[in-house]
Amino acid sequence: MTREALYEELCRLLEAAGVEVRVEPFQRPSDRSGGLCRLKGHHLVLLDAGASPAQRARALIEVVERIGLPALGLSGAALSADLLRQLNRRGRMPWPHPREAPGLARCEPPPPWHGKTTGRGK
């Protein structure tokens, strides 16, 4: 999934949950491309128009992590596999229940160890 597609998915999910997402030019250059605020009791995300889609997507991922899936009325099943990977990779997503977390990746078992070492200097 491209960063643009990830950004679009995050915008759709947040707006469906009642979080307004606005893209506006920031007057001062910032090291952050946007973030979450509350305005008159409602969640609002302001994103810098000068930021790349990847930077905006990162800011929206931070918003999802901060609010949490249950508060947004979402479950892990509502997210694309790529978005789940992004949230899981960052390690800051509080999964409310093990059933909500994405499954573990399958891998091959390590080769059997036969007690042989490849010691140096011997």
Topology of helices and strands:
Elements: H1 3-16, E1 20-24, E2 34-39, E3 42-48, H2 53-67, H3 69-72, H4 81-90
Parallel strand pairs: 1-3
Antiparallel strand pairs: 2-3
Q: What do you see in this structure?
A:
By secondary structure, the chain is of the alpha+beta class. The protein has one domain: Zincin-like. Helices cover 35% and strands 15% of the residues. It contains four helices and three strands, in the order αβββααα. It has helices at residues 3-16, 53-67, 69-72, 81-90, and strands spanning 20-24, 34-39, 42-48. The chain has a three-stranded mixed beta sheet with strand order 1-3-2. A hairpin with a 2-residue loop joins strand 2 and strand 3 (42-48). Helix 1 packs parallel to helix 2 (53-67). The longest helix is centred in the middle third of the chain and has 15 residues, at 53-67. The radius of gyration is 20 Å and the shape is elongated. It starts with a helix and ends in a 32-residue tail after the last helix. The mean pLDDT is 78.
